[in-house]
Structure prediction request, 206 residues.
Amino acid sequence: MRPYRVHDPDLLAALASATTPTAWTAVRKGWPPTNLRLDEVYLAGAQLAGYDLQDVSLVGANLIGANLAGANLADADLSWADLSGANLTGATLSDVEAFNARLAGANLTGANLTGARLNRSDLVGANLSGAVLTGARLADANLRMANLSKANLAGAMAQAAVLVGANLSGAVLVGTWLADANLDEAVLVEADLTGAVLRNVRRFKA
Prediction:
C-alpha cells in the first residue's frame, strides 16, 4: 500500500518558475534537504533535462513522458512514481529508491543506476542500453522486452526478475544474482555470466 505523502507547494511553484537548470539550482538552495518534497505532483511531459533533483522526494509523482535527460536524481525517492516513456538518457540515478516505480518504455540509455533500488519496478520495454546497474536491486522487477545490451549489472540482485525477451547481448552479469528469474527468449549473446547465480532460472531460447 502506498503511503500518503504531501508535497511542498512552494517548492513546486519554484520548480515551475525556474526555466533553466541553473535557475532551479539557485532556487533549491533555499530549501533544507529534508523539505525537498514533490510527492504526488503532476509533471507529465515536464522539461527537466539537466536539472538537479538529488535527494528530492517524488513519491507517486506523475512524470509520464518527462524529459529528464542528464538530470541528477541520485538518492531521490521515486517509489510508486510513473515515469512511463520518460527520457532519462545519461541521467544519474545512483542509489535512487524506486520501489514499485513505473518506467515502462522509458529511455535510460547510458544512465547511472549504481546501487538503485528498483524492486518490483515496471521496466517493460525500457531502453537500458549501456546503463550502469552495478549493485542495483531488481528483485521481482519486470524487464520484459527491455534493452539491456552492453549494460553493466555486475553484482546486481535480480532474483525472480522477469526478463522475458530482454536483450542482454554483451551485458556484464558478473556475480549477478538471477535465482528464480525468467529468461525465456532472452538474448544473451556475448553476455558475461561469470559467477552469476542462476539457480532455478527459467530459460528457453526463441
Observations:
- The chain has a mean pLDDT of 93.
- The two ends are 37 Å apart (CA to CA).
